[in-house]
Design brief:
The complex is a heterodimer of chains A (about 450) and B (about 140).
Chain A (H helix, E strand, L loop, with lengths): L7 H8 L2 H13 L7 H27 L14 H25 L5 H19 L1 H6 L25 H34 L2 H10 L7 H34 L11 H27 L8 H30 L4 H12 L3 H16 L4 H4 L2 H28 L14 H24 L5 H8 L1
Helix pairs in contact in A: 2-17, 3-16, 4-5, 4-9, 4-10, 4-15, 5-7, 5-16, 7-8, 7-9, 9-10, 10-11, 10-15, 11-13, 12-13, 13-15
Chain B lengths: L1 E5 L2 H13 L7 E4 L5 H8 L7 H26 L12 H27 L5 H5 L8 E5 L5
Antiparallel strand pairs in B: 1-3, 2-3
Classes of the chains: A mainly alpha (about 450), B mainly alpha (about 140).
Amino acid sequence: MSHKDTGVVNQEVNAKSAAQVKDQMERDILAAIKKPKPVYWLGLLITITMTLIGAAAWAYQIKTGMGVAGIRNPVGWGVYITDFVFWVGIAHSGTLISAILFLFRARFRNRFNRSAEAMTVFAVMTAGLFPLIHLGRVWFFYWLFPYPTQRLLWVNFRSPLVWDVFAVSTYFTVSAIFWYIGLVPDIAILRRVRTGWQKLAYAFGSLGWKGTFKQWQHYNQIYKYLAALATPLVLSVHSVVSWDFAMGIIPGWHTTIFAPYFVAGAIFSGMAMVFTLVIPMRKFFRLEKYITVDDFEKAAKLLLFTGMIVGYAYIVEFCLAMYSGNPFERDQFIYRAVGDYAFTYWLMIACNVVTPLTLFVRKLRRNIKYLFIISFFVNIGMWLERFNIVVISLAHDFDPYAWGTYTPSIIEVAITVGSFGWFLTWFLLFSKTLPVLPITELKEEAE
Amino acid sequence: MQIYRFEDKKPFMEKLEELLKSGFTSRQLEIYLPHPDHEIEELVEEYWPKSKLKFITLAGGLSGCSAGFAFTIFTSLDWPLITSGKPLVSIPPYIVIAFELTILFGALFSLGGFLLLSRLPSFKQIFHPEEYGNEFVIKILREET
């Protein structure tokens, strides 16, 4: 194996003093957040426009009523729930990279963790909107939370939908804390190098971080504990999301493999989104020196691995149905492969199972452009996976009299486009205001 | 007050070890590091106490777990309403809530404990920051040992 891309940072340590190397590192990484170029403003304009289209569509839906969405009997859960599961899934790789790979001491994690954690926070912010969009009377959303009411009635804690409220809000809180704690010392660096009002803003953001030994001592501890708390959390969140389905009796939903199957799929889709975002970011911000091809190769292996778990889960799911002795369950899976939605089913198989297998070829794994393209395939495939699970199962359950099909309406499409705009807007704002690489961790590594 | 500033880690660690051996406590010395470092942490923790954050995190986790069970059981008994023929106090589904709250309270307590122990936010440092860049610094605050 050639290692022409590694060791760049280490070689320079010998030539210059350690402090000079670290100064250079700060300059390189912070160069990314200098004054934006026109292409950045153009990107921001596009994403904000997308967000506004989605917002207008939602406003129209609230004013007119849920009839403007394509969901109706028997398919009562459509694109909104698909989007919800998709965005929660995207969030998962952030915690995988920042927490699980941290506990395993995987070094390449330092290249991706900051942007992946940011992605996690923004993806949960996007996902959290969809249960609200799906509500007929969104102004009563607070009924989901347990609070003492004049009707003396509490929420039903036996319902998976209430578990979801707890899981997703805990996930948002914990990943936001994790992200912010990691940012504090880096914001303190920005405080040092900036002037004027920016200096003051970053000074507040840094909470007055000084970098004393005692502070670092507590910092190392909290980082470790948050990683240890986030690891079981990330596994629980998508399990709970999967139980929204698996606790129901609908054929295609009521199966025990849903929790591990969803968690693997979530990490798979999240890794793909990391590629989609980090590859252009690396190019625009000239971070080739810090995020090397070797790092991408390691991440690509993770994509291949989780992709194979997902492929395996598809096979297991099919076999479970075939051997279940349950005609409804069996019929559901035959319907998936040859029924009204056969196209989306086979497109999903092509995107999620077949294309990732090409990553067995080392040359392709190390080809950044190829990884960028494949990440789109996986994003599309994983969105379709959720669509297939949600929609096809509902379209074809027990009683042939109650069968029906579903096509998303233009409003649902507009809101989905808006959710991508909302997510990308936050990511663009992040990339120009906060360090996209964890500076202090890279300094430690260079030492 | 005396200040020692170092560009590199090695001479810094030698000086630090010398001071720690001569019995300087955590109240007498202030050490600045540009980034976390496990070697330095191991060296200093031979002489100085370790972080007490773990007790706060543990307290958070335990209180979250008990709050989760207590709250779900209390609300079920407060308005007894049988749904899907399940027992009023159904422990398995409540484990999910208790689990999530264990993590949530654990993380929130950790955050609070971290801010408290690290003396953050520090307004003195926000408005008049004391910066040492990428140098390793030892400040002797009080001479007497």
